[in-house]
Amino acid sequence: MDTEAQSMERDRSSHPGEAGSERTPDPRGREGRSRSSLTARITGSVPGGRITLAALLCLALLLLLNTFVAQPFQIPSGSMEPGLRIGDRVLVNKLAYRFGTGPRRGDVVVFDGSGYFGPGDYVKRVVGVGRDHVVCCDKEGRIEVNGRSVDESTFLHSGDRPSAVPFDVVVPEGALFLLGDHRDDSSDSRDHLGSPGGGMIPVGRVIGRAERIVWPLGHWTRLARPDAYARVPAPGRQDGAHG
To answer: What pLDDT is recorded for position 100?
Structure first.
């Protein structure tokens, strides 16, 4: 009788789920508790808890976007009027030229002019790219690029001539020739023809392409590339069209 009773006790204790049986630890439960504990410690160490932590994460994300993707710039002068006015804020796409495609004629770009135009960031329009032959002016007073006259009337400031300063330049490979749309109020490549670099800006100094005006809201506009530059032939393929 005693032997049978002891055997039954052993049988009962060997079945899982029976009273007194040992339970297998749940590693996922421990992991979940560990994560919860870690989150609690992090939020507990930050003044304001979860709300402050969320705000800090959002700020970090904005800083990353501002550094590597897009950045707003404020227009400091009237050199790009009428399209860009003093105080306008433009959103600059920093990835526009990072994957093999360089600036194109007609693009509005922001660049670091230190050592070329002067200290600071500038916003101008690309008129000539590497190996372009840029001349001012044709018999009608228009700028020529690779033998093609460019009609700038859709964006040039009212009353301004394409240039009061004559020039005849070939843009070096990897450089840009840039002008402001308000030619009578713009310090640009024309003013630095005799400076180091001949008024040209290396493509590597370009911060990004200005995509749109984002402030003030009443001036919200996408900055499109003018069609006039799309008709300019490639360098070395001048067609002699002065139309």
So the answer is: 77
**Strand ranges (E), 101-180:** 108-112, 121-128, 133-136, 143-145, 148-149, 167-170, 175-179
Q: Are strands 206-215 and 221-222 parallel, antiparallel or unpaired?
A: antiparallel
Residue from 79, 149, 163, 189 carrying the catalytic annotation: 79
Q: Is the peptide bond before 136 cis (omega within 30 degrees of 0)?
A: no
79 is catalytic: yes
Q: Which of 124, 149, 163, 189 is catalytic?
A: 124
pTM of the model as a whole = 0.72
Burial (CB count within 10 angstroms: exposed 0-12, middle 13-18, buried 19+), residue 137? middle
Q: How far apart are the two ends of the chain, measured CA to CA in Å?
A: 119
Spatial distance between the Cα atoms of 160 and 47, rounded to a whole number of angstroms: 58
236: left (phi over 0), alpha (psi -120 to 50) or beta: left
pLDDT over threshold 70, residue 52:
no
Whole-number Å distance between alpha carbons of 162 and 12: 99
Q: Is 139 a catalytic residue?
A: no
CATH architecture of the domain 71-230 equals: Ribbon (2.10)
pLDDT in tens, 168-189: 999 999 999 999 999 999 999 9
Give the residue among 132, 130, 131, 126 at the shortest CA–CA distance from 144.
132
Q: Where does residue 193 rank: exposed (0-12), middle (13-18), buried (19+ CB within 10 A)?
A: middle
> What ranges do the domains of the chain cover?
26-68, 71-230
